[in-house]
Amino acid sequence: MAAHVWRRIGIALSVAVAMLPAGLSARPAVKPIPYRWQNVAVGGGGFAPGIVFSPVQRGLAYLRTDMGGAYRWDSGNGRWAPLEDDQGVASYMGVESIAADPIDANIVYLAAGMSKDLPAAIFRSADRGAHWRIVPVPFAMGGNEDGRGLGERLAIDPQRHATLLFGSRHDGLWRSDDSGAHWAQVAGFPRPGLGVPAGRRATHGGLSFVLFDPHHFARLFVGSADPGGVHLFRSDDGGARWRGIEGGPDNGLLPVKAVVGSDGVLTITYCDAIGPNGITRGAVWRYDPAAGQWTDITPLRGADTPPGGYMGVAVSVQDPRVIAVSTVDRGRPVDTVWRSTDAGRHWDELWQRSKRDVRATPFLNLDGQANFGHWIAGLAIDPFDPGHAAYVTGATVYATTGFDRPGTMLWTPWTEGIEQTAIITLVSPTGGVPLVSGLGDIAGFRHDDLAISPAHLHLDPYLTNTNTLDYAGRAPAIMVRSGSTHTRIVPGASLAWSWDGGERWSPIALPPSSPRADGSVPPEATGDAAITVSADGRNFVVETDRPLLSRDQGHSWQPVEGLPSRVRVTADKVDARRFYAIDFAAHHLVRSEDGGAHFQPTAGLGLPRTLSAAAVTWREAQNPLLATPDCPGLLWLNVGGDLYRSADAGDRWTRVGQGLSVAYYGLGKGARGQGWPAVFAIGRRQGLFAVWRSVDGGGTWRRINDHGHQWGARFRVISGDPRRYGRVYIGTDGRGIVYGDPERGTEIQREIRRNRARLRDSGKY
C-alpha cells in the first residue's frame, strides 16, 4: 500500500521486528555439498555512492554500493569484507544509505532497496554487519536509481542512539525510537513527499540528507532535493518542530549532501539535478546556524566554469576550517576534489597535484593513464587521521595518506575485497587461461590468475559491454566476441576475434547490410548480433538479419542457408562440421553438418511441441543451447526452466532435472567414472532458489551454495571448468565473478566410497 494511503486513513505504521531469512523462499532441509567460495579479482569496478567512517572507532569504515551491497573495512586483515553475501533478496543489494552508530562502534544500520518498485528494508547489526536484523518498510528506496549519490539519508541521534531518522525519496521523513524496529512518518515535517512517481525510470530526490549536530543537543537538519520551495529545514527540539531556512543559492540548485563541523557550521553541496548524470551546474555554501548567515564558498564561479556540480563533502574532525568537496558529472576536463584550510576562502584543486598508482587494479589505465575519476559522489576524511582521506568514483575507490601534506598527493585504489562488477557472460575454455569474461561498462578480462586483477582488458575494439563470448573447443586459443557501447550505434566494429586465447583481439568487419524496411538499425550496428566459432576455429557464424559465414576470419562472407534470422547459434565443441540453432517459427532444432554453410531440421524427438520459451530476446541473455566440451553431439537445452539432453546431435531428447526449474546452467568437467559432464544450474527446487550440481547427466541434483553465499540472488551466467572437476564460475549482477571449489577432502572421500561400492559389487571387497 502506498504511503499516502496510510496517511489518509490516519495510521502510523508500526512494522514488527522480523529476523527474516535471507533466501528467496522457504528452505527445505537440503544439506549442501561443502564448497569454498572466492571472488575472481578485478577490484572495485562499479559505482559506490557513499563512504562512511565510524566516528568512534579508529580503522572502521563502511562503503555502500548501488547494486553490490555494503562493505566494512577490516583493518586487521587489510581488506573490505562484503556484508550482504547472505542475502537472497535482490533488491537489498542496492544500498540507499548507511549509518555508523556514534556511541557503540559495533552497531551499524543500512537502508536497503534497489528501486521504487522493489522491497525496501532497514538493516540493523550489533556486530559490525556480521549478522543483521531486517525490518521491511513501506517507504520506497532507490539504491540503484538516479539520486543514489545523495545522503546520507539515514541518521542516528548521538544523544539517544536508539532514535533514527530516515529521509525518504517519496514519502517524507520517518522516525524510529527503538533502534529501527518500528517506523512512523513524522507528521509535522513540512515536506511530506511527492508520492511514488509513475514510469519505469521516474524517481524523486526527496529528502537528500538528515544530519544531527553532535555538538548541539537536539539540533538537526534535513535537506530536500525536490524542486520548488525551501530546501533546508531545521529542528532544535529533536524533530518535534521544524522550520524552513531561507537563503543560500537560487532555487534551481538542490542540496545533495551536507556535513556539520565541530563549530556547528554546515557545509552543503548543490547540483541542478540529482545525478549522477545530467548535472550542468552546482555550488558549495556554508550555513552558520548561530548567526543565521549563508556564505557562498563555491571553488569555481563565473561564465567559464566547466559544466558539472558538487556532491561529495567532508570536514576534518580536528579542524572545522579544513573542508573538502568533490565535483560530479564534470567531464571537462575531469571530476576533481577541492581542499580548503580556511573554511572555503581559498581552494586547492587536488587533481592538479595528484598522481594515481593503480598497479593493484591496472584496468583503470584504460586511457593510458588512470584519470582522477568521475561521478565523485562520496568523499570522506578519516576522523582519527586527517591525512587519510578517500573518495569514490564510478569505477573504484581511491585513498591517500597524504591529504594534509603539500606536494604531490598519491592516491591508490582502496578496493581490496571489493568486487562490484556486473557480469554479462564468461567462458572457461578447454585450454589456455582458466577464465575469460564479458562485463558491463568495463568490457571484460582474460584472467591468467584468478587472484590478481589482470592488466588485460578487451581492446581492438574496446566495447564497453561484452555481450557474447565463444571459443573453439579443439583450438581454444581462438575466441570471438560481440559487444555494444553506451551509444545506440557502435562506433566501429561490434565483433572481434582472438588467436591467442583472448589476450589480443582484431575487429571483424561485415559486408554492408541492406537497409531495413522500417528504417531501423541492423543488429551488427547496435551490438545485437552474436558470433559463434567452430570447434577447429576456422569458421565464424554471425547472427545478423541474414546470417553470415566466414571461413577466413572475416575477410570474406557468404550467406548461410536454412538458418533463421536472429537466432543464437551453438557450435559443437568437438565436431567442427556441426553447428546448432533453434528455429522458433517451426519449433524445431536445425543443424549444420558442413561447417555452418547449410542448416537442416533434426528429428528433435522428445522436445516439447513449442520451443518459444527458449527464445533469446535480449543480446545479453545466455544461450539456452549448450554443447559439451569433450563429447561430440552431446547437447543440452533449457526450455523455460525445463532441461533437456540429447546424445545424438539433437535427433532425440530426454527431459532431465525433473523438479528443478532452471534459470541458468553451465557445463564442467565430469566426475571420474561418470560419462556425463558436471552440470551446474541456478534455479528453484522444492521452493529453494539456489546453486545446484549434477554429475549423473541431470538425474540427481545437490545444492552447492549455502545460506551465507547467495550474493543477493542476482545472477547472470554460470559455467563449470572443463579441466578442473567441481569448479564453477558464477557471474553476478553487482558482486563480480565468484568461483567455487569443493572443500578439500570432500570429493576425495566421496570417490573412496564410490570405489569401495564398486569393489563390493564385484565381490572383491
Report the mean per-residue pLDDT as an integer.
Answer: 93
> How many β-strands, per DSSP?
56
Helix content: under 10%
List the strand order in the largest sheet. 26-30-29-28-27
Major sheet attributes: 5 strands, mixed
Unreliable segments (pLDDT under 50, ≥5 consecutive)? 1-28
β content, as a range? 25-35%
Structural class: mainly beta
- Termini separation comes to 67 Å
Radius of gyration: 28 Å
Quick one: overall form? elongated
List keywords for this structure.
765 residues; 56 strands; mainly beta; hydrolase; four-stranded antiparallel beta sheet
Walk me through the structure.
With 765 residues, the protein is mostly beta strands. It starts with a helix and ends with a helix. Residues 1-28 have low confidence and may be disordered. The strands form 14 sheets. Strands 26-30-29-28-27 form a 5-stranded mixed beta sheet, with no helix packed on it. The chain has a 4-stranded antiparallel beta sheet with strand order 1-56-55-54, with no helix packed on it.
